[in-house]
Amino acid sequence: MERALQKKRLIKRLTWKKSLLIIGVALVIILLAAGGTAYFLLQKSKPLVNGMISVNGLTAKVEVFRDSHGVPHIEAKSMKDLFMAQGFVTAQDRMFQMDLSRRQASGMLSEVIGEKTIQRDKFFRTLGLRRAAEASYNEYSPEMKQYLEWYAKGVNAYLKQAKKDHTLPIEFMLVGYEPKGWTPIDSLVIGKYMAFDLGGHWEGQAFRYYLMETFSKEKALDLFPGYPKDAPAILEDLETADIDFEKSFADSVIPNFHNGSNNWVVAGSKTESGKPLLANDPHLSLGTPSIWYQSHLKAKDYEVSGVIFAGIPGIIVGHNNTIAWGVTNVGPDVQELYVEKRNPKDPYEFQYLANWEKAEVIDEIIKVKDKTDVNHEVIITRHGPVISEFAHQDKPGTALSLKWTALQPSKELEAVIMMNRSKNWKQFEKALESFHTPAQNFVFASTDGTIAYKANGLIPIRKQDYTSMPVPGWTDQYEWKGYIPWNELPSRVNPENGYLATANNKVTTDSYPYHISDTFAQPYRQQRIVEVLEGKEKLSVKDMQHLQFDQKNKQAEEMLPILIEHVMKEPLTKKEKDVLTILKNWNKVDRKESAAPLIFHIWMDRFSDVLFKDEISDEMLKMFDGREQVVDELIRKANAGQPGPWINEHGGLAKVTQNSFKSMISVISEEYGEDLSKWKWGDFHTLTFEHPLAAIKPLNLLFNPETQAMGGSRVTVGVAGWNRETGDITHGGAWRMVIDMNDPSKAYHVVGPGQSGHVLSPWYDDQAKDWATGKYHVTALDVKDRGNQQKLVLQPSLEK
């Protein structure tokens, strides 16, 4: 009996093992089959870059040469064929990105993503970027409308072919939809989204009003960028406002506060070549694929090279054969929050002077994947859309509406094409008249030796001084009365010092007669740029490249002596002394191999947390516009013997410094251990270039490039902004360019992580390591200087 039972158990075990083996083999076969199918689909959807494709609508053959880094050099005989080809080729490389971009800006993500993005869609439907794009289209010249139509026609030619051949990017299959046809409005709404991404400070106004409502006047004003002259009167006027800020803005989309850029131009008198040098690296979100798409476009009387946002025709930043230009964000106060008084008898009427005015009401229908449609009501007052109610259905007695220059019709693409065609500063500056939003600092260089700068865009002039807070909407006292005259915007040509540079810093002196902004970037990048440009008699392309990747931390130079002095006012443990020794011996360069940058940056973050974390919710902290600048100023004032209430209430500067120091050591020790020799900035500060589908595990393994350790920080010229919780680098100059006007037929570029959005393309992430290590490739206008190329011919189709 026992033997029989043993035999049964043995057979059972063998059967179970056999079953596991069979299941394992089956899973392997399924995975291999699935993997093989996935690889086949991926391979099939790779863009054709060699050979010939027939494109309906072309009038003649177009040659597309992709160089060794996947940059398309598009050569056409007419502007129609050029822009059709640009649309077709960009769609080949970036169609999924283009579709997500237009959907996000238009508030149409939920149609393909599902209910997770409903609140985001409500926000953008309320804001009305697509409405603004539609209004802008009507303002464009017939010529520019034609360019937009041709570009859209090229995109649609690609879509038609890809759908027919089942070669759409695999992301569409994974998400489960096919993209709709492209329209000129889609291109314009992406442009409007970039204006949104570069901000205008409405969230800071809301945050400061929240401060005045929540804390004492003294404590609230301690966190203002400057003292608002009309604050008492405004607060008295707004006493009856009943806005729940945390509830109203819980799901609002706030652009990265650090969105900005570096640019500079050096006169020939200060360069080795004797001609101007120009450098630019716009700072925006990092991801896969890059926000920038690099191209070289050539047709009769039109040739330009540089970058554009995928989905838009032309080149927004770059160069032609005689000029080059770069941009940074001015960061002006071009948004105004108005507190609107609602008629208690009619929720769609708002007071203005002695009357109740009827608001415009738009009923938006948000399509949701696998769910019923969502109806969303948008209310628009005389000032703009009511943005304080998109997250809930309440209609309190007061509401916040937003006035913003980018919601007005504008013709930036008109300016872009004129810039592309310009041959000198006079023509280029004339083109800028049509570039209204976002306001940008343009630097310019020409082969004739001219260097120039202009802060360009619509910047409002207000009846009253700017208050940094929402203003009453029922009176005419706080209306805009116009814009800074174009010929009075800050501008300089051929300065005596031989260079011009901007890094989102204050660009005017206190004597400038118009208000631009109270909130600027921390000054450290600009200080370092000036230090380097003035520190050498003759500058070269290599000097410019090194400066773009420079990791000198000027904030640490200013702040560390203060922090160290105050932390040493109390007895320290051996470990704490060892940590201070690392900081004292630091050369203030944010190298990835060093411990000191890790210690310093975590310390600064913890300093801020000690002050605010227990008193201001995370929802409101995300609206704290200019938080780092404010903390810097609190430290400066306290060190000068003028501590504000936030420092005083936490025990004074020494106490805050000591508490944040201990907190920093605890956090780093928990993550990286007690051995200080193993602490490295690059272990925390890492770069991945996240793909939008990477949040769906395990797709991150397919789509994300390899993670790299990296130096730099938010305050270095070589910007590498990070998520303060995870250390992931999410922000920086995704594209860098340097050009010597001694030979404008070529320029030095890097686009992180690469040109293509197709994961099997050799150009998907081939520039990721170059971007993370400060290397460049040459993009040449002349075919003889390009080396090996892939040639694609787009030919007219016989199809009617």
TrEMBL record:
The keyword GTP-binding does not apply. Binds 1 Ca(2+) ion per dimer. Its cofactor is Ca(2+). Ca(2+) binds at D333. Keywords: Calcium, Hydrolase, Membrane, Metal-binding, Transmembrane, Transmembrane helix, Zymogen. Pfam families: Penicil_amidase. The active site is at S261 (nucleophile). The chain crosses the membrane at residues 20-42. GO terms for molecular function: hydrolase activity, acting on carbon-nitrogen (but not peptide) bonds, in linear amides; metal ion binding. The keyword Calcium applies. PANTHER family: ACYL-HOMOSERINE LACTONE ACYLASE QUIP, PEPTIDASE S45 PENICILLIN AMIDASE. Belongs to the peptidase S45 family. This is Beta-lactam antibiotic acylase. It comes from Fictibacillus phosphorivorans.
